[in-house]
Design a protein that fits this description.
Chain A is mostly beta strands and about 700 residues long. In chain A, about 5% of the residues lie in helices and about 55% in strands. Chain B has two domains: about 160 residues, no CATH class; about 160 residues, YVTN repeat-like/Quinoprotein amine dehydrogenase (Methylamine Dehydrogenase, Chain H), CATH 2.130.10. Classes of the chains: A mainly beta (about 700), B mainly beta (about 400).
Chain lengths: ~700, ~400
């Protein structure tokens, strides 16, 4: 134990004292060469003078750097952002949702190629489903993307994750790119994918991508407990069962440029079946629940500078999702529930430049959601949402400021039924106005040192499940509010010469309040009957710290590293009367560690890449009553990968070998959901 | 770029220091060491104390056993782990019932599909009876009778799963026979060689069951069904040959009620329009806790009723008399000391946080309270004259 601890520390110290860095969230770069990337960063100052653009830049992972992170899904990669906690139920098919700054997973917006992924049913997006195969950039914004030219929906979350899929890129004289990738390794993983990119003409390209995933999902896990003198009390190793998954993803897109503008359209289809491995409890070491998901969406985006001062962007989307949950276990209540969701979405964003350094934007969105199910006496809810965002961005000397106000109108229509017949039809309206202000100040032109601050108040609508789910749903629910204050500083500099090539440091302190938090409250006669209520209150005080460093050592060795650290005090203020011993008042909320962080080191030499990454999550409690019986151990995993690029004629082959959870730590992220121990992955990537 | 790199180095050293200061070392997980709390003055009666089974929320695997020792006035939380340190994953998921018969303590662990059989004094595990989806237990003449939801599945064309009562030999801890009953049977009790089982049909929403099953204990076959009301839950026999049966209702229009059924004359004696979530029978006193959710106020309305089982009259609507009920958010279990008549009420709070146990004098005045495990619910008294069956 001590040895592992020492190694961890050494690694961290090594990061801090000598190594770290990465490319920075600069302008998008098309180059795949690290050194080019570093050189490209020399121009990074440019964007400091743009009249608009992000007042507060995002945390971002992209390109090569993203590829190196031993991540299978978007969820795995997001663990490397500061201020984020991943709820991971383990395995290839296990649900993985993200909680940003402890405000709850429902406050996160996830955007896929610029348009939000919706789940009106339960509000949660399982990021474990989004493979990194076709994703080239992940950015995370606290508050919102502080850029005014965006759909109104982008103003509507307390935090946002943007996933950008790969855009076709062609070297001179080439009109086709073919990429074939095969991933295999532990958990019986077979994961082939193929991507074809074609250029019709310089203004029109397209991309087709297919990926198949199969995994048995089996892995060994071990639970053990000792006496206080260290003697083993019990020690059990078992195989995780019913974690199998197969999935097929098909994606196609066309990308065009027009005079003073661009457009794209895409189609996405995902089909899967998975086992739900469930909680490991005494006498029950395997489960048999199954889930089927089918997601389809088609979306398009068009944007053009219409006059010198007026720019317009249109977005549209149709999505249909199917989910079936089956519990065939005869020791439990039989369930075979099916849900169908539809969404239609239109958006128009209109930016007008009043002066070179002063823009205003008006965005208007309309969204329609419908949920259908085979549940008895289901409410069949329909939701119409109208969003309008008015925003302005102003730059003056070193100051950048952005202010926006979002108007939301929600109209829910649903039915009450008994014995299958409609008793009553309901029609509810809700109107809300929520503001946000983002500011940054760069005192010296010659130094890229920025002070920043933001304030945002936003709410999340109760989901269809919160409102209308048979028995537990509460149609009287109000929205759940999140209010955020943030102050921070960012410093970065880059050098063209010498061994030290650059550094980027950021620190943010924040205070969030979640009001009217929707939580389940026990009700009435009978076991475990719940009602969703607006009674929760959480106050979160936190600090996020990030550091990136880059070095160029002799013999063309590039060394980069990154370090993130988050401190969070997320206290439960729900019940002021619950202050007795074992009380929940002011306790740290469930599964939020006080300390968490990550470290990455990357070294490149010619065609060889080596990467080390480490995730640390400190001690937590699985309930706001912070007593020993609710304590959860800290966990930390170390991952290593090595890759080599072979050039064979016009094709390249990249071979990557990964070992994850190097020290085979046996841990739970969620109580009774064991995570995999040491595991391996081999990736072969052909580019033609 | 003339910026000095020294502040950066300083910054990094500070960061390294922060990272090093993290309490990062993962420790070996130590088995749960019981927490003992001194509560009150010792009490010397023929009752030594009681066990309290904490159900804990489904999936949490946190069913725990607490013990209150009246001879020392001390309350001990989570005594199973230390008594049985070699049992992987401890007691299991959702403790549903608790009983003492002879020298053994039986804990019915619903979602772990088993009954832990322990020595009633040391809590050392003697054996385990595997019964899927087991619910409640009663003892009679050397056998334990256990209700289970997990009988045969019938597709008619709807999926239906019959329940059964398992007959367990308490000497060998083997299931020796099974008797099919209605859908999702809950509590059971025994009068005059007959087992009465409250069928709930809780999985069949909205087509609940509405009967009790009558089983002849000698032939161990279902004799008949008696219609009472939908979604039955509690079923307790008093000394007059009457059954006290509660229904949960459908949680909407059909309310929860309490019925008195005369098994000798096979007729319904009386119906009480009172919400029942749990009850305890002590002599001729039936203590009834009712929690009723109101869709109007969006609150739980709570009642603490005392009913005389001889006169069939409600003696009191408030057996807690000192205002302590204001502190209790979700009363869940109730028990009465057969000797001192002290009343014990548990508070399950939000079902996921630790609960509390309150002790009241027979007059309903709070004596003490203590933290328990999650969802404290089921009691078993240790000693003589404990009304055990």
């Amino acid at each position: 134990m001590l040895k592992r601890f020492t190694i961890t520390l050494l690694a961290i110290v090594a990061c801090c004292l000598g190594s770290l860095a990465q490319e920075v969230d600069s302008l998008s770069t098309d180059t795949d060469n690290e050194l080019d990337t570093m050189l490209f960063l020399q121009n990074v100052e440019v964007y400091g003078n743009k009249p608009y653009g992000n007042v507060i830049p995002s945390q971002m992972l992209k390109g090569k750097q993203l590829e190196r992170l031993n991540s299978h899904s978007v969820a795995d990669a997001i663990r490397y952002f500061a201020g984020v906690q991943l709820k991971d139920y383990g395995g290839v098919g296990g649900i993985k949702t993200v909680d940003m700054r402890s405000m709850g997973t429902n406050h996160m917006g996830v955007f896929y190629d610029g348009i939000q992924l919706g789940n009106a049913q339960n509000g949660q997006i399982d990021l474990g489903r989004f493979s990194l195969d076709n994703v080239e950039e992940i950015s995370l914004y606290n508050g919102q993307k502080s850029e005014i030219f965006q759909p109104a929906r982008d103003y509507g979350s307390a935090g946002s994750i943007y996933l950008r899929t790969r855009r076709p890129k062609f070297i001179e004289g080439k009109n086709n790119n073919l990429n074939v990738t095969m991933r295999t390794g532990s958990f019986g993983l077979a994961n082939p994918s193929v991507r074809w990119e074609h250029r019709f003409n310089p203004r029109l390209t397209m991309s087709l991508n297919a990926e198949y995933t199969y995994a048995t999902g089996q892995y060994h896990f071990r639970y053990r407990k000792v006496f206080s003198d260290g003697v083993v009390a019990w020690d059990t190793t078992a195989v995780r069962k019913n974690g199998d998954i197969w999935s097929l993803r098909l994606e196609g897109g066309v990308f065009g440029t027009i005079t003073d503008g661009k457009w794209n359209a895409k189609v996405y289809y995902y089909d899967s079946e998975r086992g739900i491995p469930g909680a490991i409890i005494n006498n029950v070491w395997k489960n048999s629940q199954r889930q089927w998901d089918r997601n389809f969406f088609a979306q398009g985006s068009w944007q053009k500078l219409i006059t010198e001062r007026y720019e317009m962007m249109l977005n549209a989307k149709y999505a249909r999702d199917y989910m079936r949950y089956l519990n065939p276990d005869t020791t439990l209540m039989y369930l075979d529930n099916k849900f169908w969701q539809d969404e239609i979405y239109f958006s128009s964003a209109n930016k007008y430049t009043i002066m070179t350094d002063w823009d205003v934007n008006l965005s208007v969105d309309y969204k329609w959601n419908y949920l259908n199910s085979n549940l008895v006496n289901f409410a069949y809810p329909t939701r119409h949402t109208l969003l309008a965002a008015l925003s302005t961005a102003r730059t003056w000397r070193g100051f950048k400021i952005q202010a926006s106000v979002l108007y939301t109108h929600v109209n829910d229509r649903y039915t009450s039924r008994s014995g299958g017949t409609v008793i009553e039809k309901h029609n509810k309206h809700l109107n809300k106005l929520t503001p946000a202000v983002f500011m940054s100040y760069q005192p010296w032109q010659e130094h890229d040192l920025n002070f920043r601050a933001f304030f945002k108040r936003i709410f999340r609508m109760p989901t269809f499940n919160d409102l209308y789910y048979t028995d537990i749903g509460n149609a009287g629910l109000r929205p759940e509010y999140a209010t955020q204050w943030n102050v921070g500083v960012l410093y970065q500099c880059y050098y063209e010469q010498g061994w030290f090539r650059g550094v980027k440091l950021s620190a943010d302190a924040y205070y969030n309040i979640v009001n009217d938090k929707i939580i389940a409250v026990p009700k009435g006669t009978g076991q475990y009957r719940w009602m969703m209520m607006n009674i929760g209150k959480v106050k979160i005080r936190g600090i996020d710290f990030t550091a990136r460093l880059a070095f160029r050592l002799p013999h063309d060795i590039v060394l980069e590293g990154g370090l993130n650290y988050t401190y969070q005090k997320a206290q439960d203020y729900t019940n002021p009367a619950d202050t007795l011993d074992g009380g929940t008042y002011k306790g740290q909320i469930a599964y939020i560690p006080w300390h968490s962080g990550s470290a990455t080191i990357h070294a490149a030499w010619k065609n060889l890449d080596l990467n080390y990454s480490c995730i640390y999550v400190g001690e937590r409690y699985h309930n706001s009553a912070n007593i020993l019986a609710n304590h959860e151990q800290p966990w930390y995993t170390h991952d290593l990968s090595a890759s080599y690029l072979f050039k064979i004629g016009i094709t390249t082959l990249k071979v990557t070998a990964e070992v994850n959870n190097l020290f085979n730590q046996q841990y739970d992220v969620i109580q009774n959901y064991p995570m995999p121990g040491r595991n391996y992955r081999l990736i072969l990537k052909f580019d033609l | 770029m003339s910026f000095n790199t020294k502040p950066i180095s300083t910054c990094l050293v500070v960061m390294a220091a922060i990272m090093m200061l993290l309490p990062s070392c993962r420790e070996e997980q130590v088995i749960f060491i019981p927490e003992e709390v001194e509560i009150t003055a010792p009490q010397y009666t023929s009752i030594q104390g009681f066990y309290l089974l904490n159900e804990a929320n489904k999936g949490s695997n946190k069913a725990t056993l607490d013990y209150y020792n009246m001879r020392t006035g001390r309350y001990t939380r989570n005594i199973f782990s230390i008594a049985n340190p070699n049992v992987p994953k401890e007691m299991g998921d959702v403790g549903n019932d608790l009983g003492i018969y002879g020298s053994k303590l039986y804990a019915v662990i619903n979602c772990s599909n088993k009954i832990d059989v322990m020595d009633k004094n040391t809590v050392k595990k003697i054996g385990q009876i595997d019964i899927p989806n087991c619910r409640f237990i009663k003892f009679y003449d050397g056998y334990a009778y256990v209700t289970s939801y997990a009988g045969p599945v019938i597709i008619t064309p709807n999926y239906e799963q019959q329940g059964y009562v398992a007959k367990v030999d308490t000497a060998t801890l083997q299931v020796v026979d099974k008797c099919l009953v209605g859908f999702q049977p809950d509590e059971l009790d025994i009068i005059n060689d007959k087992i009465y089982v409250a069928n709930s049909g809780g999985y069949m929403v909205p087509n609940y069951e509405n009967t009790i099953s009558v089983i002849d204990i000698n032939t161990f076959t279902e004799e008949k069904r008696i219609e009472i009301d939908i979604n039955l839950q509690c079923c307790r026999a008093d000394k007059h040959g009457n059954l006290w049966i509660s229904s949960r209702g459908d949680y909407y229009d059909h309310p929860s009620r309490l019925f008195v059924y005369d098994t000798r004359h096979e007729r319904l004696l009386k119906t009480f329009d009172t919400e029942v979530s749990s009850m305890w029978l002590d002599g001729d006193s039936l203590y009834v806790i009712g929690v009723q959710w109101s869709y109007v106020t969006m609150h739980n309305g709570i009642s603490y009723a005392l009913i005389n089982t001889s006169s069939l009259e409600v003696v009191s609507e408030h057996f807690i008399t000192d205002g302590t009920e204001q502190e209790i958010t979700m009363p869940y279990g109730v028990a009465v000391n057969p000797i001192t008549k002290e009343i014990y009420v548990t508070d399950a709070k939000d079902y996921v946080s630790p609960g509390r146990l309150y002790c009241f004098s027979p007059e309903g005045v709070k004596q003490w309270d203590v933290r328990t495990g999650d969802i404290p619910a089921h009691f078993a008294f240790v000693g003589e004259n404990t009304n055990e069956k």
